[in-house]
Amino acid sequence: MSAPTRSRPTRSRFDVDREQLGEVLAGEPRYRIDQVWQGLYEQLRSPAELTTLPKALRTRLDQELPLALEQEVRRISDQGDTVKYLWRLHDGHRIETVLMMYPDRVTVCVSSQAGCAMDCGFCATGQAGFQRHLTSGEIVEQVARAAREARDLGRRLGNVVFMGMGEPLANEAAVWAAIERIHDDLGLSARHLTVSTIGIVPGIRSLAARPLPVNLAVSLHAANDDTRSTLVPMNKRYPISMLMEACADYLAVKGRRISFEWALIEGVNDRDSDAHELAALCRRFRLAAHVNLIPLNPTPGWPTVGSSPRRVREFRDLLERLGVNATVRRNRGTDIDAACGQLAAGQPVRSQPIAIRARGTSGSPR
Ligand code: SAH
């Protein structure tokens, strides 16, 4: 093999499949492939830590299968129960990952793109714009490293949510390849993997055609096209009726409950009329629809404020009375900008936000 080079790696550790690993291990006994694969995915170790391998091989593998994510910052919150990682990619772009430890489960929130092109004004990632898609290896590595950290703390990572930076269904092929690796090799159950989308209808349809029954979460935020198009520009391309058809079809194929995410914004989507509209949309799904409420988190580029805790509870109670399953999501990591919609990876965000106005109200948003 050639001498170690300083040039940028083309294949990172978790981008390599078994066959490619076989190429890297050419000349070694065949069983080395399993040994290394298990080391990476079951033991969550780096090649340097695989003491069953000869020392020279360990060193070579560490060089030829480099990590894709260089840890730049690691911040903790919630007494250590929330960890946010800021990673630097080989080309200088940055992404974030959030590890959340609950009493009964451990969840990692992963990024699928550096930045995001969806341009939702209330989301810090959207405010900073799109840089590039992540490779499947860059996605898998976020999970593997979080799993390792959890294990070192005596916990088992069991859940992955694609709710970090980026729109996973705009990068569906890489996301799917990552899901397969997370399922087949890291051993997580498909039922514990959740893809969250702004509502890219062709992406939902591709996901429906894939074999594993992963959960679908849809960032709905408004139940009429006028409001939703202001909050989520992609709604103009895939309006609510089309989106609901795709959700119904996903449900029919997968039999998995669908979550609707709803960031409550004062005076914009938290009125009684909004709850009624949302309940009407959910009716066709009966108990298979679940609404996740979360008060809007502050971001630098958005003027409106999240609903008060009291209003959030009232909104939930009204939904429940209207027959809709709804829960309020506990906010994690707001103090370290690790909460929903706050991941900007240190990117400057647009300073001139597009102001939106609630329908039927006058006056400017705060
Ligand atoms: N692009 C995908 C994956 C990101 S998930 C998607 O939008 O679903 C991130 C979630 O946080 C989405 O539901 C998003 O709408 C929500 N979000 C964005 N900004 C937020 C904010 N400021 N406060 C609360 N939730 C926010």
* Mean of all residue-level pLDDT scores: 91
Q: Please state the second-level CATH architecture of the largest domain.
A: Alpha-Beta Barrel
The largest pleated sheet is described as: 10 strands, mixed
**What is the percentage of strand-forming residues?**
15-25%
According to DSSP, the number of beta strands is: 12
**Small-molecule components bound:** S-adenosyl-L-homocysteine
Q: Tell me the strand order in the biggest sheet.
A: 1-2-3-4-7-8-9-10-11-12
Poorly predicted ranges (pLDDT <50, ≥5 residues)? 1-9, 351-366
What is the helix fraction of residues, given as a range? Answer: 25-40%
CA gyration radius, whole angstroms: 21 Å
The count of domains is: 2
The DSSP helix count reads 11
The succession of helices and strands, N to C, reads HHHEEEEEHEHEHEHEHHEHEHE
In whole angstroms, the N-to-C terminal distance is 62 Å
Explain how this protein is built.
It is a single chain. It is built from 11 helices and 12 strands. It is elongated. The protein has helices at 18-24, 31-41, 55-64, 124-128, 136-152, 172-184, 201-209, 225-231, 240-254, 272-282, 309-321; strands at residues 70-77, 82-88, 94-101, 106-109, 113-115, 130-133, 159-162, 193-197, 215-219, 258-264, 289-295, 325-328. The relative contact order is 0.11. Mean pLDDT is 91; it is low at 1-9 and 351-366. The longest helix is centred in the middle third of the chain and has 17 residues, at 136-152. The termini are far apart. It folds into 2 domains: 18-64, no CATH class; 107-336, Alpha-Beta Barrel (TIM Barrel). Helix content is 32%, strand content 18%. It is an alpha/beta fold. Strand 3 and strand 4 (106-109) form a beta hairpin. Strands 1-2-3-4-7-8-9-10-11-12 form a 10-stranded mixed β-sheet. The protein has a two-stranded antiparallel sheet with strand order 5-6. Bound molecules: S-adenosyl-L-homocysteine. It is found in: Cytoplasm. Its cofactor is [4Fe-4S] cluster.
